[in-house]
Amino acid sequence: MTSESTNAGSTSDDRSAASDSPADRGNLRPSDAPVLGPRPVYRPHIDTHTTRAFRRPTGLAGSFAPHTPGAATPRQDGPELVNRPPDTVLAEAFGRPEGSTELLQRDPDAIDDSGASTAPADPWRDPESGARLGAPAIPTPEPQPLPPATRLTAREVLFGGRVAPKALIVLAVVALLIGVAGGLIGRLTAEATAPLTSHKVALQQESAINKPHGQVAKVADAVLPAVVSIRETVGDNGALGSGVVIDGNGYIVTNNHVISMAATDKSGRAKIQVTFSDGTRSAAKLVGRDPKSDLAVLKVDVKNLTVIRLGKSGDVQVGDDALAIGSPLGLQKTVTSGIVSALHRAIVETPEAGDDSAGAFDAVQTDAAINHGNSGGALIDSEGRLIGINTAIRSESGGSVGLGFAIPVDLVQRIAQTLIRDGQVHHPQLGVSAKTKQVENDVLSGAQVADVQAGSAAAKAGISEGDIIVKVGDREITETAELTVAIQSHQIGETVNIQLIRDGRRVDVPVTLESD
Predict the structure, then answer these.
(1) Which among 382, 377, 397, 373 has a CA at the least distance from the CA of 337?
(2) Cβ neighbour number for residue 485 with a 10 Å cutoff
(3) Closest Cα to residue 326, out of 313, 336, 316, 340?
(4) Residues 436 and 448: beta-carbon distance below 8 Å
(5) Direct distance between the N- and C-terminal alpha carbons of the chain, in angstroms, rounded to an integer
């Protein structure tokens, strides 16, 4: 520090001396130019840590300490090394393995006696070597399976000390919060639905003690006990239908197709059972049947029966109220209402497998609903009198479409009376078969004769094949069904005038009908 000050002072004196030189005064600057003094020395502040790290060692006055060969003397004023590992540990960690003579640096030019290089391949020294993967420096330990978890019981969780108390407190708080939230939601839900339900509402009903019942209700109540349900069975096969009590001695009229399966059975297993409106059941026996009118009469051994009243076909008019009562689809005591839609509707049934019914009759047409199971049931007027036996429907779907047909009561009374008396019925017969379609021309339509039975009433009267029958008695014939119905409406042995077209001429032929 002293020498630096001395040098600075010397420099100032030299500058002053030079300024006093005549040559300098005349050549460098004017004599009145100011003379600059020396710059002050700036000594920045040095903190204690910097001073300790970079100061001159203690005991030295110069720039460098004299070099003394030998072991270096550790500094006494610096931090001492702490936690230094023992020499044996360092030797074990960084020394050559015991018994090994291998050097860390292998001679790359080492060769054996044969002149071949013994130096290991070193990819770092071979620029042509490719990249390769080697074994990891530290082997990866195989994962050890976790020990099986043990399920704690509630006692162990709460009192066994297996769960930390803080965790139990957290669980308790969470459970409490869940309970509070559930209670709030339940309360809000109950409050939201409370206006929709009430225990204070009591629905009241009114009695109609003095209510007058309509005519349909009165008629149905009076006639229902006279209409029965009929079930026929042959082994595992069966069929359902309806019937009407027509006599207090147990006689019931129904359709032939309702009991035809049992009537034609030869095995002796056929059974017919009748069920009355009050649920009473009774076995029935077949009195007689008539396939050509599709009627049959049964008899049951039951006393005190309700008998239906028989009306007359002449009193029935189109538009009259009508009720159909029976067991459609097995539903007993079913009542449907409608009107009489038409009269003298010619209906001819076609025999089917297991059913020999070939009924031909002038039907009463009604729009009262009639379905399968109504067969044999009653068609009654507004006074409760029988005006027909429900027999057939016409429908493309198989169900009721308001086109139902009933056998008129006059024919029912005549056939049933004959069956009860004789057990069988005979019908008049012409002895011809007509084509299935009607024959029409510009003037007339009728049923064309397709075949004439030898020795029949038609053959005896001179009716031949190809004749077109247009009238039987007073009834016009427009189709084959009307021809069959017209013939059966007369009596056996009765002479009937038949009008026909032959070779374009109208011919009247009297025919005496014979029995079938």
Answers:
(1) 382
(2) 23
(3) 336
(4) no
(5) 167
Contacts of 141 (CB under 8 A, 6+ apart): none
Q: Which two tokens stand for residue 363?
A: 């039907």
Question: For residues 294 and 298, what is the distance between their CA atoms, to the nearest angstrom?
Answer: 14
What six digits make up the tokens of 184?
A: 């709030």
Q: Per-residue pLDDT tens for 82-137?
A: 677 888 888 777 777 777 776 666 666 666 666 666 666 666 666 776 776 767 66
CB 368 within 8 A of CB 357: no
Instruction: HSE, CB side, 13 Å, CA atoms: give it for residue 186.
Output: 6
Side chain identity at residue 232, one-letter code: E
CB within 8 Å of 480: residues ≥ 6 apart: 348, 434, 435, 436, 437, 438, 447
Query: CA 360 from chain center: how many Å?
Result: 49
Burial readout 288-320 (b: 16 or more C-beta within 10 A, e: otherwise): bbbbbbbbbbbbbebeebeebebbebeebeeee
Q: Are 287 and 307 in contact (CB under 8 A)?
A: no
Residue 184 confidence (pLDDT) = 87
Residue matched to tokens 């001073």: 51
Quick one: tokens of 113?
A: 């006696």
**Known catalytic residues?**
257, 294, 375
Residue with tokens 């018994």: 99
Q: pTM of this prediction?
A: 0.62
Looking at residue 188, its pLDDT comes to 78
Euclidean distance between CA atoms 493 and 513, whole angstroms: 5
Q: Exposure of 1 by Cβ count < 10 A (0-12 exposed, 13-18 middle, 19+ buried)?
A: exposed
What ranges in 364-456 are assigned the alpha helix state H?
A: 409-422
Q: Would you call 349 exposed, middle or buried from its count of C-beta atoms within 10 A (0-12, 13-18, 19+)? A: buried
Residue ranges in the chain whose pLDDT is less than 70 = 1-34, 60-82, 102-126, 129, 132, 134, 136-137, 191-195, 436-443
Residue 124 CA neighbour count, 13 Å, CB half: 2
**Helix, coil or strand: residue 433:** strand
